[in-house]
Amino acid sequence: AALKERALKIKLANDVVDLGNIVRISAWLSIATRQADELQKVRSNFKAINDVLDELNKICLTQANK
Description:
Helices cover about 80% and strands about 0% of the residues. It is mostly helical.
């Protein structure tokens, strides 16, 4: 059970990194092409990042891990 929980925590943390990378790349693409619509496409990723962080926060029991 502990290994499954640890694997879930790692997966959720990786999901946050992946979503953040998508936002970062879109931001630079938007700057390079001078098209703000690139940022509009990934705007929903911020809510998704917060949702994943909320889920991760629920399963982190140690204060140092929050």
